[in-house]
Amino acid sequence: MTDTAQGTQDLTFPQGFRAAALAAGIKPSGKTDLSCVVSDSDCTWAFAGTRSTTAAACVTRNRALFSGDGPVRALVVNAGNANAATGQRGARDNADLADAVGSVLNVPEDGVLTASTGIIGHLLPMDRVLSGAEHLPEELRAEVAPFAAAIMTTDTHPKTAAVTLSGGARIVGTAKGSGMIHPDMATMFAFAFSDARVDRDTLRSAFPGIVNRTFNAVTVDGDTSTNDMAVVLANGEAGEVDPAEFLAALEGVMRELARQIAADGEGATKLLTVRVSGARSEAEALSAARTCCVSPLLKSAVHGNDPNWGRVIMAVGRSGAEVDVERMTVSVQGIPVFAGRPLPYDDSAVSASMKAGEVVFEVGLGVGEASGESWGCDLSAEYVSINADYTT
Amino acid sequence: MTDTAQGTQDLTFPQGFRAAALAAGIKPSGKTDLSCVVSDSDCTWAFAGTRSTTAAACVTRNRALFSGDGPVRALVVNAGNANAATGQRGARDNADLADAVGSVLNVPEDGVLTASTGIIGHLLPMDRVLSGAEHLPEELRAEVAPFAAAIMTTDTHPKTAAVTLSGGARIVGTAKGSGMIHPDMATMFAFAFSDARVDRDTLRSAFPGIVNRTFNAVTVDGDTSTNDMAVVLANGEAGEVDPAEFLAALEGVMRELARQIAADGEGATKLLTVRVSGARSEAEALSAARTCCVSPLLKSAVHGNDPNWGRVIMAVGRSGAEVDVERMTVSVQGIPVFAGRPLPYDDSAVSASMKAGEVVFEVGLGVGEASGESWGCDLSAEYVSINADYTT
């Protein structure tokens, strides 16, 4: 992940990809809110969208294109308006946006993916969106920074990660963060772009597992937004790569983005990491870890540097994951606090160790060999003030 | 529910029931923390306990007695210590408490139910608990108030409800509240006592449904504590009753207690009620309503009097309940805001209507005839300060 260190400012897209961003007037702030990424050639791609039964128009359309199975070349993103719960008019607006961006980029409409993020229940200002779209070609460039900024909503900073494979091919990822809990802001977008040539079936079969171990592990409030999506586009311009190396690198990029999303939670002051081992299955390990990360109670304790490990016992217990309490173990920042029974420990020492940028709980379920990790953030009073008065 | 109006202070138990409460020194505050209820005669009873896989010793033991199928006559409760995650020693302590209370009350050990609530992961101070138990008989009386107070933890006031059936038999209920989110304080106890004579099988078959529509509808943070339990004891001393009238009255008492629990959430300033109709099944209606009530995002909007109904769309969407968004309806305090598409409404008028003691959202899913209701509370910054520093 050496590229990550270079930071968002200097980061460029892989070969054949360019992006454009501009302010179309969707965000009241006047910040950039309409952007696109286009590839010079067709891309092998994979998609994962929200399981919400009230999914937004963009998710429904992308899912249909994905099952349609054709290649894509472009992605258009608007921030500031989720175009969700907007009825059939919203679906038409979404298709019109894809059509308009496709024609200015010379890409067929069904080669253009769409992504909208922002408040639910408001129609897109199509006049501004469409006139903005006409100017996207003028803004196309290789730099990632303008795109990474234009997809943000309440994020405090852009989120990117990148890696170079042994053969020189690259994977560049960008994401927009979930705050700790603001799913109506379309919690999560994750986009990965690569110039590697990768087999379509290999990518499609591996992608769901990668998403499950990375972005689905960072659903910090258990809420699933109407607009969540993860997309990977590979245009093959850098030639063949080792599939195993590519998939591992892709998961590394997505894991890094997931951690950045968790750490940038609304009102968050630290990253919460829960590692579960000894589970009967990876699914149960991830469920137990996630249930800890979504517990407002545990998150509050982490905020207060309170080593209240009983809240981990509670969260694991209600996750439904099989556990042998007699063999169960819990440690906080590496300090064992429970092993089938409460262990003696220095309250103030453990509390002091929790005053770090990342607080790690390690939990052993004692029933199997599977493991899983989840990321969240602490819960602060600032979160409430952020979310108690959003629309009004 | 006329008896409810008389208030906790004057409330007495049904015929043949007496209760005792004293301070055994479990709570650092020195408040009453050890209590019991005993019936002069054997009781028909029903029990519902937490589904947590890390259930406390009291839940495990009561569940075993319930499957054992014999009558019970007494219930002993300690507050301030959950006796959960305390290993085999904790299980022995729990059995020893039942044994000690049984002998001073002349009830066989397997006729005594146990209930512990408080912090997880600490052994019971058995010396103080057992010496306290010896003095319980001296404190036995017909008044409910001392018992209702002794079972509280962070509750701000005792919770009781009572009803008199047409034939004169009574049902008296007491509960300890969940704060909005403090499951390690053993979110919820609900105990109902009646002098009605009710058929064992009738009671046992109806109880799970009643609990599901009342206490399970008030799991405001989705967390399931290690100690949650609901118990109903009927000693038959007032003679036969109409089963249908009894079960309806019991559900009324439990519904009233559930609403009191929700309204007394930690840091709560108002009750949140979500009514879902047009669902495919009662289970899906309850799931959709619960998912709205547990959403920290919606709860924050309610706290800020923010009519951000998009958060209802989100919560229903992720609940998994089947919905036809084109036929879906949402109203806030009786004001329609969504009907397949956003409806025009006066933001400030809706916001003003939310400055009430109870905020009601009514949601139509448009796919069936089933309905369900759930209760929660708003999320305030005070919640975080309450929970950020509990043990230390």
Write a structural description.
Two copies of one chain form a homodimer. Chain A has 392 residues and is an alpha+beta fold. Chain A has two domains: 2-261, 4-Layer Sandwich (L-amino peptidase D-ALA esterase/amidase), CATH 3.60.70.12; 271-388, Roll (Ubiquitin-like (UB roll)). Chain A is 34% helix and 25% strand. Chain A has 13 helices and 13 strands. Chain A has helices at 2-5, 7-10, 57-68, 87-105, 126-133, 145-150, 200-213, 243-263, 282-294, 296-303, 310-319, 347-353, 381-387, and strands spanning 17-22, 34-49, 72-81, 112-119, 159-164, 170-176, 189-194, 229-234, 271-279, 329-332, 335-339, 358-364, 370-377. In chain A, strands 1, 2, 3, 4, 5, 6, 7 and 8 form an eight-stranded mixed β-sheet that branches. A five-stranded mixed β-sheet of chain A has the order 11-10-12-9-13. In chain A, helix 4 packs parallel to helix 5 (126-133), helix 7 packs parallel to helix 8 and helix 9 (282-294) crosses helix 11. The model of chain A is unreliable at 1-6 and 179-186 (pLDDT under 50). At the A-B interface, helix 4, helix 10, helix 11, helix 12 and helix 13 of A face helix 4, helix 10, helix 11, helix 12 and helix 13 of B.
